Write the structure tokens for this entry.
Amino acid sequence: MWKQQIEDFCKSLNLDTIGFVRCRRFEELIEFYEQRKEKNLQNEFEEKDIEKRINPMLTMESGKTIISIAFPYYHKGEYQENGFSIYTKRLDYHKVVKSYLAQICGFIEGLGGKAEGFVDSNALPERYIAYLAGVGFLGKNNMLITKKYGSYVFLGEVITDLEIDLEDERSYKEISNFTECGECNRCFNECPTNSINKTKVNPNICLSYLTQKKELSNQEISLLKGNVFGCDFCQLKCPYNEEIITNVLSDFQTLDYMNEDIDIFATMDNKFFKDKISNTSCGWRGKNVIKRNALIRMHQDEKDIASYRGDSSYINGYIDQIKKVTN
């Protein structure tokens, strides 16, 4: 009964891709995370404590059920390529998703249960949970892909102490079969850094990750390929993103100023950043990293960046480094 009521409430919010899994210690993930640690594949944004990654009851001790929810964000006809990933061109999804999760938690509390909502910046293995819950499947590009919205979704979770009757979960053994991708290797072919390929996944050279790093080596600068924040190469060519339902949640409409020419971001001051960029999903990283990446793109487009000196010692240092990489 609870399951149907929660599903109906989510649908009233225009959220129709949800699933449920038992809140438990995901012991089957221990070897995966240990191998990542041994191979030095963890990055600065990742939770290093394996127990925290695999045990959601450390997040909510009384948890019995995890609800996984997909939030579609793609709005058709509003995208212009200027170095910013599609997901960054709208309001910060952390805030938007949290507002939806707060409503869902409130509904569950009205049913007599306790509930807590989570989005992205936590230790939960959210893509794995979404996979187990039947929200989507894990593609060869390591992204969660849904039937209706492709990979253009944000994920959120609600942990509740309500013990909801569930059907059999998918198994861990199925996760690496990639049966939904079949023989398709488009994402491998599109990845500029070979971060994803037939033999392994190395997130530390993913362009999306590189655009978020505060410090870049000369080699990493040369790899950016015009990306200012995030990367969509594998998504743009994925067959599952060709015929998707779009324009679902008005909260994720594209912000017009995020389609501006790149020089706007290379010259932005603190006011522009505070009024505009800080409200988006890339704003958390701060002004200077975005300006640096914009300057890298401009230099790759053979535009003079020497006149952009004077903003800060950070930017001045990178102008010299950027010019050395290709000169």
